[in-house]
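Tokenised fold entry reproduced for absentees:

. . .
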Amino acid sequence: MELRQLTYFKAIAEHGSINGAARALHMSQPPLSYAISQLEDELGVTLFARSSKGIELTDAGRVFYQRTVDILGRSASAAREVSMIINKKTFRLGVTPTVVPVISPYLCQLEKENGNLMLELHGGDTYHLKEQLDDGSLDGAVIRTPVNLQGCRYHKIKEEPMAAVFGHRRKNNSVTLEELSKEPLIIYRRYEALIHDTFEKRHLEINMILECDDARTALQFVEDGLGTAIVPMTIAQKHAGLSIATIDAEELTTSILLAYHNTNAVLSSLLELLKK
């Protein structure tokens, strides 16, 4: 398996056709088709299925696409790191989209104090970033609980409450679980178990009408009038125009952590900034 084949595969998957990929890669179609055929033979699976819409990834193809993006990303990162090794230090940090407002000021200060620093940020969900941290692709990862941190060291950056976000104006800035049990709720999947457990401890039913994989998606549906979302407070505060209320339940909290395995000079500097 060669990086060239992975580049071809990624281009076809993203353009949805061999012709489109060939144009983007500035090459003819036959060698591209042949390279993919060789790749499928080597893997022993079919990566693409042809349909009336063109070609689509198979189940195996979708899994392989995710790995391909990671491999090509690491390859490019390694090339950049080697090319800049004389003048710059590369710091590879994973961040989930929802923690960017919290970690951004610290990273700006880190860059100011380390003029020869190249910050390389990798986005993804907490579980994907934890996987990359474990396999050595990242120097550190800023993630949210709940998460299994077995084998990791970590520093707690911030603990914050969950908030209820309404699409309509409210007089009160707080809300009880009893009141929320009467609302049509939009739940960010990562916190489903925590939210359900909290309601069950109070012997309350939960009226969940939508579950999704991104807090920003949940807030979009709130804006569209579907229901009320429960998300971390810092995420809620980034959406002007929505009514935000603290929830009268101490259990509904989440922590933002900097997780890592080994320290280096840059990571040590970041930890010092976080501890101030």
Observations:
- The mean pLDDT is 88.
- The CA atoms of residues 94 and 141 lie 4 Å apart.
- The chain has eleven helices and twelve strands.
